Amino acid sequence: MPNKMQTIIAVDQNSTLSTRDRGLNYGDGFFTTAKVVDGQVQYWAHHKARLIECAQRLGFPELDFNSLENRIALHINAAPLNVLKILVTRGEGGRGYGLPSECNVTILLSVLDYPSNYEALTKKGVTLEISPIKLAAQPYLAGLKTLNRLEQVLIKKAMQTQNCDDVLVLDYNNNVIEASAANIFAIKNKCVFTPLLDECGIKGVYLQSLCDKLPVEFKRVKVEDLTQADAVFVCNSLMGAVPVKSIEQQVFNTDDSHALLTKLLAKEAEC
User: Fold this and answer.
1) What is the reported pLDDT for 75?
2) Does residue 28 sit in the same domain as residue 126?
3) Domain total in the chain
4) How far apart, in whole angstroms, are the C-alpha atoms of residue 69 and residue 104?
């Protein structure tokens, strides 16, 4: 049965969150960020699946999606383009890290402006360098979009001294995992592949939707696998698939990359 003990807070100037909330104190929670077009949440089925998986794997009670979807419908507006963030915490309670005997889930809803640079990046492509910050392995959390994002904060901080649009983030075995806030996929000989996310990284909503349309191989990926590919893309649910213009010194033709992906999608749609 869905959890009836959940508090939904629409974030505005009058909103409050308890200082004892476990999400604030321990990062005990998860979130998803969705593109909203003309009042419609894009890829909602995949965002919902993400929230369900996070709740199950982290031991949260089942979320009441009827209540949540009703509040979302009231909260988002009919603006042509904006962003909805859904943040879920385990609420208050418990001693220290210990879990509360009863969980009153807190859900924060916020509507944000759509990133102003995404449209330009989609057209011109992105330049990538390799981040000096590497991701630690934690299979219990791999794939989940939890509130523990300090690694990504450090990655973004390091990017301030790098001359690029985004970065390739590696693990401690020098496997490519993702970009700073996006997944990576590549095309080689008409086959699509993406990094395996069994030890770290986030399984993105757009990547999941791409897997519905194309056969995608999840495997260990090294930097040279990308530099030797026919096309490379970064992707997330807000910007879609954006072609990579360069990785360090390796340059790609973004027009060719767009054409290659479009052709593969069209061919698969015919099957």
Assistant:
1) 86
2) no
3) 2
4) 18
Please say if 227 is a catalytic residue.
no
CA distance 236 to 206: 5
Q: How confident is the model at residue 15 (pLDDT cuts 50, 70, 90)?
A: confident
Q: Is 9 exposed, middle or buried (0-12, 13-18, 19+ CB in 10 A)?
A: middle
Residues 175 and 189 in one domain: yes
Burial of 3 (0-12, 13-18, 19+ CB in 10 A): middle
Which one from 134, 178, 245, 254 is the annotated catalytic residue?
Answer: 178
Which residue, of 114, 136, 160, is where some domain finishes?
114
80: domain CATH number is 3.30.470.10
Dist CA 16 CA 67 (whole Å) = 20
Whole-number Å distance between alpha carbons of 118 and 238: 8
Q: What angle do CA 132, 136, 141 make, to 5 degrees?
A: 135
For residue 7, indicate whether it is catalytic.
Answer: no
33 counts as catalytic: yes
Describe the crossing of helices 205-213 and 254-270 by its angle, rounded to 10 degrees. 50
| CB contact at 8 A, 75 and 111 | yes
Size (the chain), residues:
271
In sequence order, the 6+-apart residues with CB closer than 8 A to the CB of 271 are none
Predicted TM-score (pTM) above 0.70:
yes
Q: Is the pLDDT of residue 5 over 70?
A: no
Catalytic site residue from 35, 48, 145, 203? 145
Of the residues 32, 33, 106, 194, only one is catalytic, namely 33
User: Are 185 and 203 spatial neighbours (Cβ–Cβ below 8 Å)?
Assistant: no
